[in-house]
Amino acid sequence: MTTHLDAAYAGLAPDTARIYRDLSRLPFHDIDPAVVAAVRRITPGEATAHLATLAAAGLLENLGSDELRGPLYRFASPELREQALGLAHAHAHETDGEGHDVLGRALGWAPSAAAAADEQATPSHYHTLGINTGDLPHTPQHPVHHHDADCALGWLTAQSENLLALIRAASQHNRDDYLWRLVYSMWPWRRAAHRGDEWIELHELALSAASRDPSADELVERHLMTTYGSGLRNAGDPIALQVFTRVWEMAREAGDARGEAQALYELGATHLGNNDAMEAVPLLERARRIRVEHGYGRGGGAGRHPPRPGRLASRPRRSGPAPVSGCARRPAGSRYARRRPGPGLAGAHPPEGGRRPGRRSGPEDG
Known about the structure:
By secondary structure, the protein is mostly helical. The chain has 16 helices and 2 strands. The protein folds into 2 domains: 3-100, Arc Repressor Mutant, subunit A (Orthogonal Bundle); 104-338, Tetratricopeptide repeat domain (Serine Threonine Protein Phosphatase 5, Tetratricopeptide repeat), CATH 1.25.40.10. A hairpin with a 3-residue loop joins strand 1 (60-66) and strand 2 (70-75). The termini are far apart.
């Protein structure tokens, strides 16, 4: 630090100085009072006051105020962040456990807020797994609440870069229980942002985390694979067919007719997106029959009328997030275009009426 900033840090109250050190341990691009409150176990009002003090001292930069997040701050320079991290390491011995739970508390806060946003913005998706972060350590004392669906999506959009960075940090630190829950709960953001590369990356991390987490059962893996497959399909990756085939197999093994119908629909939609109506239509009709036979009726993806050939392939994709009221895809030749089947996919057998990429099968039987 410069002499001026050294003096500014030395003049901080102990609690404010500790917040400054804690912030250096977070992978966030910007900071708001809610996350500081969660990390330090204080009220948002107290966090706001500490952040304003740090900005007045020249240690943080005030970025203005966001309608949904409140006042935003960041380190005045990358050098200051590094120096603050050095201070955090130097002071670690003074307070038992200082820094030990900083990332954990941020991870406790993020899935709680994201799951609440998922429940507001896409309730059917939320209730599929009913993510309950109250069972995890570090439940925030002051959880984030979203007024309505627009505010929920707006919050996810505004926090997206921080949440992506936090997921990657969770992967580096093997915080599997938080990781897959956070990825699952970001579904509304994915639908609005259309950032396919990140969505695929996050799901590869989430599926690996879920495979290690004893609390993640087969249903968790299946639903993560379904949204993973949707990202692959949107990216034009042929592995999507293998992913949805494996989801179909898992649903059949679990005796889940609704899940089987949904997987068949996703397979049919993927073939249709490839302009392969001959493969698509039998799968879509089979999905419809299962739903009718089991009385599921309309409302789910497999309950809709099969899309017309060419409809998915010609549908324009938005390049940016959907507008929020009130409140680059990777180039050809990337590693995503050459992805090998993941664990459990290589042996997946397509249902009748579908085929492996590059291999044609006969029409659906009866």
